[in-house]
């Protein structure tokens, strides 16, 4: 790979993917460079938040680096990072409450700070879109439903929601495939 000072590019990481991940390699290229309903900022914000949620440092670094080349402002990256962190926390909490299904837990206040979600540096719709991708990766049904409803209320189309989830799925698949390359087979 590259040194700590020079992050890899997405293209360099794609080249590392083995034959078993050929579909991921092709999907990664097309979803980041092909047509779609997401704006440039939305596409890169979703990709970065998804890489963080997928716990892939090489992919996160490459996407952040490539997003700057693609003209994405730092505030989009910061909102993607915030969405990944806060939504990850919420996914654990709300998924627990949903899985347990006891009203006594649902009646208790969460008391989890999430002020950043109400004051994004981009738009609330985009921050919710980034959070939707993270919730889908973590499999929190209640959070996915809440973020999907929130983005639709803010003018995001169902096509954009669909493209967000496709992008999150490809990024997560790439993270899994890259983990095998970086760590080696187990």
UniProtKB/TrEMBL annotation:
It is an enzyme of class 1 (oxidoreductase). Residues 111-177 form the Carboxymuconolactone decarboxylase-like domain. The keyword Iron-sulfur does not apply. The keyword Nucleotide-binding does not apply. It catalyses: N(6)-[(R)-dihydrolipoyl]-L-lysyl-[lipoyl-carrier protein] + a hydroperoxide = N(6)-[(R)-lipoyl]-L-lysyl-[lipoyl-carrier protein] + an alcohol + H2O. Keywords: Antioxidant, Disulfide bond, Oxidoreductase, Peroxidase, Redox-active center. InterPro entries: AhpD (IPR004674), AhpD-like (IPR029032), AhpD_core (IPR004675), CMD-like (IPR003779). Signal peptide: none annotated. It holds the Pfam family CMD. Coiled coil: none annotated. It comes from the Bacteria. Its EC number is 1.11.1.28. Disulfide bonds join 140-143. Gene3D superfamilies: AhpD-like. The active site is at 140 (proton donor), 143 (cysteine sulfenic acid (-soh) intermediate). Antioxidant protein with alkyl hydroperoxidase activity. Required for the reduction of the AhpC active site cysteine residues and for the regeneration of the AhpC enzyme activity. Belongs to the AhpD family. This is Alkyl hydroperoxide reductase AhpD. It comes from Pendulispora albinea.
């Amino acid at each position: 790979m590259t040194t700590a000072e020079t992050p890899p590019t997405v293209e360099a990481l794609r080249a590392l993917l083995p034959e078993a991940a050929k579909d991921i390699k092709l999907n990664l290229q097309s979803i980041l460079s092909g047509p779609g309903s997401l704006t440039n900022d939305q596409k890169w914000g979703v990709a970065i938040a998804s890489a963080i949620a997928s716990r892939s440092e090489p992919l996160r670094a490459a996407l952040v680096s490539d997003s700057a080349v693609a003209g994405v402002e730092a505030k989009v990256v910061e909102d993607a990072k915030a969405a990944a962190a806060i939504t990850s926390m919420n996914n654990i909490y709300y998924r627990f409450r949903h899985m347990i299904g006891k009203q006594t837990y649902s009646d208790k206040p969460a008391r989890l700070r999430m002020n950043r979600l109400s004051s994004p540096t981009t738009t609330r719709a985009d921050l919710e879109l980034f959070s939707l991708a993270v919730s889908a990766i973590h499999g929190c049904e209640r959070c996915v439903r809440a973020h999907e409803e929130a983005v639709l209320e803010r003018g995001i189309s169902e096509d954009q929601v669909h493209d967000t989830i496709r992008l999150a799925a490809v990024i997560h698949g790439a993270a899994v495939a890259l983990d095998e390359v970086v760590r080696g087979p187990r």
